[in-house]
Structures are given as C-alpha cells and as structure tokens.
Amino acid sequence: MSEYITTYTGNHFKPTNPDPELIRIEDIAHALSLICRGNGHVKTFWSVGEHCICCAKEAAARGLSDRMVLACLLHDASECYMSDVPSPFKKELPEYQIWEEQLLCMIYKKFLGSALTEEEQTRLDEIDHALLWYDLEILLGEKQQTEAPRLHIDLTYEVRPFEEVEREYLDIFTRTYK
C-alpha cells in the first residue's frame, strides 16, 4: 500500500505529508468537478466544484475582492486530496481536522500568499453557510427552520457535465489569481 495518491496530473501526493510544490489547480478543478456534495446523499448530482464556483460567484456579486473570490473558489480544495468526511463523523476525528486545516492553509498560502484573516474566514463562512442552506433545502428536500439567506446570484442547480464545471473553475481561477 502506498503513502500517496496519484493525482489527475500524475503527481504522487501524500495527503498526510503534503508538498506544496505538488499542489496543482488542475488537480483541484478536475477532482472537485467529479466529487458529489453531501457524500452523494442528494436528489441529483451536484459537485463540490460547482458549489465552490457558486461561492466564488456569490463573493464577486457581493463586491468582495478578487482574493475573497479566489478564497471562496478554493475553500474546499483540500477535498481534492483528502475527500470529504460528513460533519458528524468529522467532529469525532480531531487528527483528520488538523490535517485538513494544514492542507487548506498550505493551499491558501500557495495561491493567495497567506492564510485567511479571521475577518476573511468569517465572510467565507457566511457565503458557504448561505449556499449550504439552499443545498439542504433543494438537494435534500430538508425543510430549513430559518429564513432563506439572501443570495446575490441566481442558483439553479442545473446539472452540468463535469468538463464544463472543471473549465469554469479554471476560468474563475485564471481571472482572480494574481
């Protein structure tokens, strides 16, 4: 059994001992476009990549900086290398949470130049949680007890081919990466 995963671009990446030089936006865009939200427990396929695109578009629609748009695009990028673990289970895995946070911080440093500030993280969380509200309501049919958060984008949940999602993810990255 190996200590690494082979990425889409052919790198041998060790999620528990990551090398920032091996982090590729192409791997992130490709993998996230193929990973389903909600651990697959949704009424229709909705990729993590599509979710990140929506978060980035929402940040832009709110007039946030390119740095915040890029942060929103990248906020689930660690899942490209580590997959996702459902929240109730993740809460019981403190070591996993540490690895995930370290990897995400490494990704932010590589593409943003630094980790997020507390204020930036708060803004990102607001957007992520707003979109999660709609995911739960629409993708799971789980009636939410709170009022729908106001979005600045149209959210259609139109299922698109993964190649289209991957391409748009890379396009947003290219426009906002400085």
Brief sketch in words of this structure:
The protein is mainly α. It has helices at 25-34, 48-61, 66-74, 79-82, 87-90, 94-112, 118-139, 162-176; strands spanning 5-6, 12-13. A two-stranded antiparallel sheet has the order 1-2.
Labels describing this entry:
178 residues; mainly alpha; Phosphohydrolase
Question: What is the strand and helix layout of this fold?
Answer:
Blueprint: E1 5-6, E2 12-13, H1 25-34, H2 48-61, H3 66-74, H4 79-82, H5 87-90, H6 94-112, H7 118-139, H8 162-176
Antiparallel strand pairs: 1-2
Helix pairs in contact: 1-8, 2-3, 2-7, 2-8, 3-6, 3-8
Organism: Blautia difficilis
Protein name: Phosphohydrolase
3D architecture notes:
With 178 residues, the protein is mostly helical. The chain has eight helices and two strands; from the N terminus they run ββαααααααα. Strands 1-2 form a two-stranded antiparallel sheet. A hairpin with a 5-residue loop joins strand 1 and strand 2. Helix 1 (25-34) packs antiparallel against helix 8 (162-176), helix 3 runs antiparallel to helix 6 and helix 3 runs antiparallel to helix 8 (162-176). The protein is globular and about 45 Å long. It comes from Blautia difficilis. This is Phosphohydrolase.
Model regions low in confidence, pLDDT < 50 over at least 5 residues: none
Number of helices: 8
Strand element count: 2
Briefly note the structural class of the backbone: mainly alpha
Strand order of the largest sheet: 1-2
Rounded to an integer in angstroms, the radius of gyration calculated over CA atoms is 16 Å
Protein name: Phosphohydrolase
Organism: Blautia difficilis
